[in-house]
User: What shape does this take?
Amino acid sequence: MKAKAAIFFMIALFISALPISASEKNKGPANMILDGGNRGNTSFPHSRHQDAIGDCATCHNLFPKKTGSIVELLKQGKLEKKQVMNHCRDCHREKIRAGEKAGPTSCVKCHDKSLKN
Assistant: This one.
């Protein structure tokens, strides 16, 4: 009887861990360096945004979840030069107006010429 209970417990534990493993696998890097053009690259705390926003489509409706996708879409003319920056800045401003903690809203607070990809 104890063996059956132990097996049942192990199976339940294994099944309950599956969704966590699958969601963690697709989270992407915790931090990224985004190409910021001639103003300098931008350090992007990806995991902090995931925690704060929760819905990946908020950002990824503009570009796919793929390294280099922003640069590629810009080259193809499928994304405007400042479209990503405007998206980020506008979201930060909305959060500030709502009295919430938010990221920077000025160019110099995001772009850093010393950051390398």
